[in-house]
C-alpha cells in the first residue's frame, strides 16, 4: 500500500471510529488495529490523535463551500437550506462529528476551529438577508432565525440515523415546511 493509500485508509477508519465512539473513547491503537497497520504509521502521518481528528473535521470545509457556492448562484435562502439538508444526508459522519464538537469541544484547539467555521457559516447566512432589498429583518431577528433553523438541524442530524430515502424525503418536506411557516415566513423564501 502506498503512503497516500495508507493515509487515506487511516482517515477513513478514524472517521468511522470517531463517529461511532467519539474522540475521547477512540484510541490510536483502535485505529491502527482496525486499519491493520502499525501505530507508528498514524504518528508518522498525523503526529497526534488530535491532528488526525482535525484532518477529519476539515472535511466539512468542502461541504460548506459547495453549500455556499450552489446557493449563492440562486440567491435563495430556500435553496441554501435545501442544499444544507441534502449535504447533511450525504455526509452524516462528518456532520455528526462536527455537531458533537459544537456541543462539547474535545480541546481548545478544536473549539477554536469549530468557532471559526460557525462564524463563517453564520456570515454566509446573513449575506442572503443583506442582499435582499425586500427584507427588513434586523440583526437580532436574523440571528434568531439562524439559531432556530440550525438548532433544528442539530437536533435532527446529531442524534438520528435514517434507514431509507422515504424517511429522508419526508423529513426534508417537514423541515422545509416548518422553517418556512414557523421560522422565516413565506415572504423570505422568494
From TrEMBL:
DNA-binding region(s), residue ranges: 27-46
SUPFAM superfamilies, per the entry: Homeodomain-like
InterPro entries: Homeodomain-like_sf, HTH-type_Tx_Regulator, HTH_TetR
Transmembrane segments: none
Annotated Pfam families: TetR_N
Entry keyword set: DNA-binding
Record domain HTH tetR-type: where: 4-64
Record-linked PROSITE patterns: HTH_TETR_2
Name this protein carries in UniProt: TetR/AcrR family transcriptional regulator
Source organism (scientific name): Chryseobacterium terrae
Amino acid at each position: 500500500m502506498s503512503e497516500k493509500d495508507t493515509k487515506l485508509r487511516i482517515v477513513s477508519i478514524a472517521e468511522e471510529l470517531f463517529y461511532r465512539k467519539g474522540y475521547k473513547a477512540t484510541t490510536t491503537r483502535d485505529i491502527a488495529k482496525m486499519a491493520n497497520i502499525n501505530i507508528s504509521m498514524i504518528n508518522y502521518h498525523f503526529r497526534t490523535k488530535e491532528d488526525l481528528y482535525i484532518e477529519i473535521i476539515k472535511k466539512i470545509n468542502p461541504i460548506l463551500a459547495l453549500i455556499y457556492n450552489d446557493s449563492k448562484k440562486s440567491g435563495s435562502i430556500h435553496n441554501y437550506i435545501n442544499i444544507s439538508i441534502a449535504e447533511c444526508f450525504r455526509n452524516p459522519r462528518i456532520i455528526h462529528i462536527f455537531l458533537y464538537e459544537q456541543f462539547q469541544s474535545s480541546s481548545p484547539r478544536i473549539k477554536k476551529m469549530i468557532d471559526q467555521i460557525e462564524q463563517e457559516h453564520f456570515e454566509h447566512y446573513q449575506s442572503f438577508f443583506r442582499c435582499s432589498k425586500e427584507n427588513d429583518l434586523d440583526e437580532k431577528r436574523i440571528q434568531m432565525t439562524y439559531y432556530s433553523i440550525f438548532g433544528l438541524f442539530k437536533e435532527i442530524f446529531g442524534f438520528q440515523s435514517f434507514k431509507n430515502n422515504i424517511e429522508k424525503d419526508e423529513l426534508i418536506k417537514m423541515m422545509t415546511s416548518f422553517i418556512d411557516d414557523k421560522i422565516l415566513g413565506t415572504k423570505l423564501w422568494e
